[in-house]
Amino acid sequence: MGARQNLTIQLAERPRGDIIPGQTFRQVRLTAPTVNSLSEGQVLVEVLYLSLDPAMRSWINDVRSYLPPVAIGETMRGTVIARVLESRSHSAVAGDLITSFNAGWTELAVLSDGQFDVVSSSSMPANGKLTDLMGVLGITGLTAWIGLKHIGQPKPGETVVVSGAAGATGSVVGQLAKIRGARVVGIAGSDEKVRWLTEELKFDVGLNYKSSDFREKFENATPDYINVFWDNVGGEQLDVALGRAAKNSRFVMCGGISQYNAALHEGPRNITNVVYQRVRMQGFVVFDHIEDYPAARAELAHWLGEGKIKRKETIIKGGLRVAEQTLVGLFRGTNTGKLLLEQKSPSDPGTT
Amino acid sequence: MGARQNLTIQLAERPRGDIIPGQTFRQVRLTAPTVNSLSEGQVLVEVLYLSLDPAMRSWINDVRSYLPPVAIGETMRGTVIARVLESRSHSAVAGDLITSFNAGWTELAVLSDGQFDVVSSSSMPANGKLTDLMGVLGITGLTAWIGLKHIGQPKPGETVVVSGAAGATGSVVGQLAKIRGARVVGIAGSDEKVRWLTEELKFDVGLNYKSSDFREKFENATPDYINVFWDNVGGEQLDVALGRAAKNSRFVMCGGISQYNAALHEGPRNITNVVYQRVRMQGFVVFDHIEDYPAARAELAHWLGEGKIKRKETIIKGGLRVAEQTLVGLFRGTNTGKLLLEQKSPSDPGTT
Prior knowledge:
The structure is a homodimer.
Chain A: E1 5-11, E2 25-31, E3 42-51, H1 55-59, E4 80-87, E5 97-100, E6 108-112, E7 117-118, H2 139-152, E8 159-162, H3 168-179, E9 183-188, H4 191-200, E10 205-208, H5 214-221, E11 226-231, H6 235-243, E12 245-253, H7 257-260, H8 273-276, E13 280-283, H9 293-306, E14 313-316, H10 323-331, E15 338-342
Parallel strand pairs in A: 8-9, 8-11, 9-10, 11-12, 12-13, 14-15
Antiparallel strand pairs in A: 1-2, 3-4, 3-6, 3-15, 4-5, 5-7
GO molecular function, one term (chains A, B): oxidoreductase activity, acting on the CH-CH group of donors, NAD or NADP as acceptor
Protein name (chains A, B): NADP-dependent oxidoreductase
InterPro entries (chains A, B): ADH-like_C (IPR013149), ADH_N_2 (IPR041694), ER (IPR020843), GroES-like_sf (IPR011032), MDR_fam (IPR045010), NAD(P)-bd_dom_sf (IPR036291)
């Protein structure tokens, strides 16, 4: 009987447009690491969940960005929740659950101290779930909190418009803005998502950008113009929003999911409104604000526990084999709320 | 013999693209105001100089902006230097020189207290000229100072790139940035302007955006990318600059002369770099910062007096009759430095 294999997904080529399953990535079976692979200060983990995020599309482009691009032949990057199988670290024992940005798309990984955080149940609200660590209490929730704190700064009564509002970050942005007393307009890509925004999350208005009268409805929904625009999408929605910018408005530039796959980007024609309306349009990257994480996590856990922040997850089963198709689905809007891939259920016993 | 006439230029129609002399504006001869027209607190003035500015093109568009559009049939708006002919105000006496934003394109005007500022020679450096009140010491100089203070904030050693660098605002921006220790790259539209920037104003690099290898030269001139970009132009230059944005760079959005005349605007395709490089892209309007004027004027007068700020003027003679053609010329890049129209020489005697 041969050594155990470790299914790993590597970047095979850089897509020019859409990710093509079976071509952009390749599935390789490497010899699995074992307890003998560990040095002092390391743990062997098995991945339970992969976080799937729009930013992943940008990580595989060879452009100057906030992280170096994933190299051809490198394991695809991403946040995971994993279980410790073996430990030579003082930070964790076998059986611990951890989150990590250093394992990536693989079944088994060796991580060193500093590359993982042990999950502490004390920081979770009573109604918290393990997977919230990749959603409301993870990078996507932190992104919402930090972008609103540093750039958006919504005041009571202001109009906040969120694009990608039914996604993991956008849904938290809108709810935080409601908590801060703002009037919130959410934009999403289906009537079902829009219903979730208005009926469950209590957004004041929900707009389906695919409807034929989207621009007209957008204008009607912003009679006093936009004080804060949260951009997850770019492209046409950003352009329309610039056309409706209020004086001294803040445009929180978080992402541009409509543009990541586009070979030829389209710029916002209403950019001149940045001058006329004195818009502050500012990009940010959550990783620059690690000092804010504790305060942000504490507040997000509080509102989650109070039921003031609701969340939805779209959890895809099938493990790493379907990771590529699942990521493609993200760009087609298949998910509401946080999109996760379950590689292995936490209730399955650990494998050694 | 009939009453004296007052040549006035009114907006006749809103241009869709370029201003068309003889069509966009109309020249009307109204009955001239006289001393009998004055109420208590008013002055009768004759215009000596008109300031011609890129923003004028935007003032005649019917769009939501920082000022209401000039109405059809209204006197064209603009800053003037004028001489008081008659006064029923305690603020001025006949013979005083004043600046005003409320007279517009007309030979004679009645202004009320609060609508004009009397020129005080004590606030001018020894080498100052009357027309500096529309240039380095006027709105264009104030614009440079205020945009750098609130948004650009150049630090010693940083790379500052200025578009429209040979214009009235851009030339002051670059020189202030040099005074603050930055490395300055100026973009202009002719080799002659570029020579003025590098030889007279001591910019580190000058680039002619009309040269065929502009993009390559731009890259070579910004090996450490751009920390501050001052945008007077928009369009392609803004797009190229976004492609070269440094991490945490500031884009001072002052104007978009390349776009004012365009019926169809083009947006910057590199807008996604706002996220990747955490760019702060912020528009401003000088009139929002009146509280800064005294400090800004004092510093600008100081550097002008020291010879650390140099300026050039392009003064067109011919009076109001050629105002339209002169404004059209501004968009074709005919001027270096501040563009002025001389309606009447200050050395000519006052007319009553």
